Every structure is written in C-alpha cells, then in structure tokens.
Amino acid sequence: MRIIQRLIFGIPEEKWKNGCGILFLILGILSFFVSLFQAFGQDIWFDEVFSVNFIQHSYKEIAVLTGKDVHPPLYYWYLKFFHDIGKVLVPAASSIVLCKLASMLPFVGIFVYTLTAIRKNFGLHIAGLFWFLVMTMPQISNYTVEIRMYSLALFFITAAFVHSYELVRAFPVQEVSEAKRTAEPGAAGTDETVEPEATAGTDETAEPGAAGTDETAEPGAAGTEETAEPEAAGTDETAEPKAAGSEVTSGAVLTSESVTGENGLIKWWKRNKHWLLFWVYGILTAYTQYYACVAVIAIYIVLFVFFVVMAHKGKTEKPFCKKAHIHKEQLKEQEAIQTKVPVKGWRAEHTTEQETGRMAGICIGKVLLCAGLSVLAYLPWLPFFFSQVRTVSSSYWIQPLTWKSIFGCMKYIFLPVSYTVKKNYVLACVMILFFGAAFLYSFLMKRKDAKGRFFLLTGLWIAVFTTLIGFVCSILNRPIFVYRYLIPCLGAMWLVAAVVLWDFIEKNWGILLFVPFLLSGYSNMQGFYGEENKKIVEMKATQSFLADFPKDAVVLCNFNHVQAVTACYLKDSNEIWLYGSNPEDLIAELLPQCRGLEDTTELLQLVKERDVYFFGSFNSREELLKEWETEGIAYTEEGTYLLERYYFNVYHLATNQSHVDP
C-alpha cells in the first residue's frame, strides 16, 4: 500500500495523509457553504412553526409554552437569543433566515472541535475525514438549515463524546516513574514530541506508520503498548501529570505546581476541565432534546463501566515491589518525590494495577458526582417533563414501530437522499459493509487496549442505546420514536467511522475504501441542494401569491400542517379554518387565527357570509369538493403552490345559485 502511495504521489506517507485530511476538510467546508446558501430560503414546515413563534415571546413565557410542548426549553432560548442579536445587528433581516443561520452555528462549533481536540488526538487526516462525513452523509445536511434543535443537540453530544474520551485517555493505565520519563528522550510527557497519531488504542503489533505510531519511532516513543507512557495521549500542551481525568498517582510523579508555579485556579482547570466540560455539555443536552439526553446517559454508562473495570483490575492484582536505580542528580531535582523506601538512590515502585485501581475509584466518584449534579440541575424542569409525559401518553402522532423499523434506522443513517434511488441503495449497502469490516478490524486487531475499545464502542453505543430506549418506551407506552431522533448521535458515530476507515486502509485496499463514502456524500449533497433550491424557487411564487391574497378573505384547509404554516405567512390578516377538526391547543394559542370547522353546514353558512378560499391537500380534496358540490357549494380552481414540503391547490368557493335545498 505504501509503495503504491509513493509511486503515485511521490511524497512521504505522513504528508500524503495530511494532504488527504486537507482535501476532506476543503470538501466539508464547501458542503458547509452549500448549506449556508440554502439558509437564505424562506420556507418552513409544521415543526418549524413552533420554533419561529416561540421566539416571539419572553424567555419566561417560552419555558411555559415548551411545558405544553414535547421538548425542553434550551433550544428555544438559544434561538431567541441568536435571533434577537441578529435583529439588532441587521434590523431588516428575515426572522426565518436568522433562525436558519442559528441552526448552522452548531456546525461551526463542530468544526472548531475538528481542528482542535479531534486533530490533536487523531491527526489531521482523521479530523478532515470526520468533518467531511459529518457535513455530507445522509440526513445530516437537512438539519443544517432546519429550524429545530437537532443540530444543536448534535454539537453537544459530539463534544460530550470527545471530552469523555479525553477523560479515558488521561486515565493512568500504566504508571511510569519520573526518572524513567526524563531519562528516555521522546518518551511521553510533552506534546511537542508526540505525533498527533500517538493515541491510546494501538498495540505492540502495530506496524510502523500505522495510526498511533511513526515510521521512525524509537523504542519508548508514545504510541506503542510495550513502552507507551500512560499520559502520552491524554495530556495537554504542557503534558502535566495532573491532566484532566488523572491525579498524582504515586510519589514517583513530580507535581506540576513545583515546576510551573501556576496559581490554583489554572491548576484546577487543567486537572478538571474535561470533567467540567463533559458535565456542562451533558446537562445542556438534557435541556435541549429528550432523546439527546438519552444519548448522554449512554456515555455516562460506558464511562462508569470503564472505570469500574479498571478498579476491579487493580483490586485483583497481587502487589509486588521492585528496585529501580535513580541517580543522585535526579533525586536532587525531584525533591517533591515521595517514596516509601528512599534509601541511597533506591526506591520502591508500586504496581501499575494497584495505582490504576486507586485512580479508577476516584474517577468512579467523579462520574457519580457529575451524574448527581446533573439530576439536581434538572430538578426545576421535572414537573414540566412529567406533564409532557402524561400528554404524550394520552395521544401522539407517531406511528407504531415494527421489526422492520430496525432496518429502517440503518437505512435512514446510510441511504443518500437523492433521486437516483437504485444507485443510493447500492452505496448504502457498500458503506455498511465497509464500515462494519473496518470497525471489526480496528476493534480486534488495531485498537485492542481498553482506551481504544472504549472509544470505538461508545461511538456506536450512543446510537444503539438511543434506539433501544426508543423501542422499549414505544412498546411499554405508545410509539414515541422516529428516525430523526438519531441525528444527534451521528457525530460520534461518524467520528468512529473516520478512525476505523483510516485504520483499515493501512492494511487493506487503501483509498478505494473512501470511494463509496465520497460518492454517497456527492449524491446526498446533490439531492439536498436540488431539493432545497426547488423549494426556494417555488416558495417565491407562493409568497407572491400570499402577498396579494385578499386581506378579508377566509382560508379553509383540510390538513393541519398547511393551516399552521399558512397562518405563519399570512400573520393576523386572515382567519385560517381547519375543516372537520380543530387545531392543536398549542397551535391555537400561538396562532389565534387558526380555528376549526366541524361540518358542511357550518361551511355553507361561512361561504354565504365570507369570501372563502380552499387550500386543498392530498387526494381527499377531490372527495371534499364533490361532497360540498352536492350541498350547494361551487368552486373555481385558481392554481397550485408549494409550502415548503406541502403542495396544495387553491379553490375559490361560492354558493351555487342553481342549487335548490331539498
């Protein structure tokens, strides 16, 4: 594989990898700007009606309104804040456009993590591939401009996953004396000497140049299991022993305070920043969307299990002691070292397993502390949550799940959204096979240590656990799970995909592995651009029609989604009636012009008194028109229009003068 690379490109492998990473970054950035262009459309659909109307109220009123909805309030607060700032900066800006731009902002946050934490932990090549995947893979692009909470939840969960991995990377699986640390050049302990790929998750069988090693790495360099320093992959630029997720694990570790002279706050931040950020992102996610909250719980579970396993490993290992020689000069430099047998340059080394067990116990306590603080932070919202549960239990719109829904989840994640259906199904099957093979290879052959497997399993477990909880709740109560609730989980999954795909190509078929993902990204973005562009064009005609719509006319709809969206565009100038039913209570509260009409008798009276236009949806409109015609209501068709995703025909209704009542 490397020979082919050099023959084709004529450059060293690391430069080739970085070049691929830059190429993927550029493709992802181009996709971002394609989505940004679509954010200037004026189309919204039914769910977005709630978003654009909630922000017209105060923050306190938003909390009350969301208590009547089925989501927590944080997204709406975020949306209102962004919208209001945008209106101050650009008073003439469209509220819909500002709200769509608010959905783009979380992807900027993901890009920042791509260039910082992800690039640092895995290398530029993996960071670039991840950014490309998260911007172009099926379904995600649709939510870059949808005025809902999914892009914000996607960012929060991806960030929480990254910080959970930082905690695991910083955990001291193997304790090494400071004397050995300073005696071996290139040993872990400073980020300057560690390659970006020197991540936990490689083993002693890793080939030179594989992810986590360098072709010219000397023995003792970070990235191999035989001599890897425990903190190589989990430290910051200063590579302090007390990095986030770790403590001073034995007297053989020189404290950072004696070296840097930093104040207490900075030292506390460096030790605990990943714990703090992990907790903050978790509670923000819980206040954003309930299934996203389930995804965070999934991360907590795996993190807890990881530290429990490490603690058990430490307890079952028998203690032993061995002598290690330390030069007098080193002892003088390390006055802070505490040893049990500091006799004439000799000291006792504790076993790695014992120290691991002790540190794992501390980390278990921190996980439980974060979980407990999260519960306390969520207490103010619990009364609203239980009220929403009662509402959903009584009635909800989601259809029942079947065993086919499991395959539907996979189809939703991997099937590109475009008009070339057969090609897309082939691409989806090939991507699933390649991803599965790469995952198994990485899990069984490449990343066989606890840290590497934590990363791989957690990235998939988040989506699996969310799906499992959705199915269980739907079976026990009523259907409350739809595929789009998986969107917030996909950032972690595609990060795992980026890692295992790069692991796999080093031993197998090289860049050919990327071909189906590149084709899928192109197909999906082509479909997304075509569909959104069509909406922009057709919505111009619809907005022109609505702008000239008679101010005193009445609109009649046979579909509640069309009623609510129409009310958003017509504002308060027209009454919008729903035939045969009443609008949802929350819609009626947000949009008082939305009303219900029970039967033909009421409609006939309305047509006699007012100027009525029927916005007919679906084939049922033909049946309704025939029924009304027999009751003395005539109609004239005046055109067909699109409201985001809803086509409707416009009919002008009038009484039939020739009709004689029986």
Strand content: 5-15%
Radius of gyration: 30 Å
SS field, number of helical segments: 24
User: Helix fraction?
Assistant: 55-70%
Averaged pLDDT? 80
Q: Which class do the helix and strand fractions yield?
A: alpha/beta
pLDDT < 50 runs, ≥5 residues: 6-10, 173-260, 319-351
Number of strands: 8
In what order do the strands lie side by side in the largest sheet? 5-4-3-6-8-7
**How far is the N terminus from the C terminus?**
87 Å
Written overview of the protein:
- It is a single chain.
- This protein has a six-stranded mixed sheet, sandwiched between helices.
- About 20% of the residues have low confidence.
- A hairpin with a 2-residue loop joins strand 7 and strand 8.
- Helix 7 crosses helix 19, helix 7 packs parallel to helix 20 and helix 12 runs antiparallel to helix 14.
- It has 24 helices and eight strands.
- About 60% of the residues lie in helices and about 5% in strands.
- The N and C termini lie far apart (about 85 Å).
- The radius of gyration is 30 Å and the shape is globular.
- It is of the alpha/beta class.
